[in-house]
Amino acid sequence: MNEWALEEVVTRKIVCERQNERVDRFLAEEGEWSRSFVQSLIERGLVMCDESPVLTNSLKVQQGQVYTVTLPEVQPLQAQPEDLPLTVVYEDDDLLVVDKPRGMVAHPAPGHTTGTLVGAVLYHLGARASLPGNVIRPGIVHRIDKDTSGLLMIAKSDLAMHSLGAQLQDHSVSRVYKAIVHGGPAHERGVIDAPLGRDPHNRQLMAVVSERHGKRAVTRFVVCERFTHFSLLELRLETGRTHQIRVHMAYIGHPVAGDPLYARRDPLALGGQALHAAVLGFTHPRTKERLLFESELPAYFTQTLEKLRQS
Q1: Is a pLDDT exceeding 80 seen at residue 131?
Q2: Angle at CA of residue 132, ends 107 and 197, nearest 5°
Q3: What strands lie across the sheet with 66-74, from one edge to the other?
Q4: Taking residues 219-233, what's their average pLDDT?
Q5: What are the start and end residues of each CATH 3.10.290.10 domain in the chain?
Q6: 145 tagged catalytic
Q7: Is the whole-model pTM more than 0.85?
Q8: Which of the residues 24, 99, 145, 147 is marked catalytic?
Q9: How high does pLDDT run on average in the chain?
Q10: Burial of 196 from C-beta contacts in 10 A (0-12 / 13-18 / 19+)
Q11: Which of 3.30.2350.10, 3.40.50.300, 2.130.10.10, 3.30.530.20 would CATH assign to domain 77-170?
């Protein structure tokens, strides 16, 4: 799949109201793009400043300049069946519960068009595949991050899509995570009630913000085990905001170990956050039975715990 359809483009003009800031950073924040995306546009000559091409990412912007950004139209992504390993925990005519491995993205996105959980599900279902939702995220009711492992529910019917989505909205879905975090909270249990929104300094990240600029987010934690420099926590989500656990733990000074976005350092060399969706519970859309599923900690997680216990 080609990333760009060059014959169809959109242009966007951005008037600069800042001074002496790198052009790639300025355009990334103004356009709500990633810096790497802006840099790729500059490299391809698709960014102009007052009708002159921008030749370097480090150019310093000046107030009053007008930047014209040419955006090649992104070809629409579409999930395709892929023969990938898939751990099915539960399945019936309405839904699937799967145990997602670490390192697998939930659905296609720019930079991750293959190797997705959706692709594995579509292959698993074969001719039966007719999932609700759009072509990029068919059946996806909720997501967990690429390097977060664990339980995920997928709708196979419109009834399930509507019911499971409604249960997420009213916070009746049980979601319990296990995480290894830096240091350890002073108390054995606690509640983090802090609104989340886009980080005003980096639109690719989430952050604790004011109530006016964010949505309420509540995470409950219990300390399960303490080590010299780390702790094992059990965390329950009352809400399900993007990166909620990762941001909340960093906010209280105990970021998730290995987190490349919010921890800043990875002394355990995990290469990704030590976060596992261990418990998932919800009401079946058709039978109204309460279902509860548990997932064992993956090998990398248990091996890390053993090392911490021995240190």
Answers
A1: no
A2: 50
A3: 4-15, 66-74, 47-49, 52-53
A4: 98
A5: 4-74
A6: yes
A7: no
A8: 145
A9: 89
A10: buried
A11: 3.30.2350.10
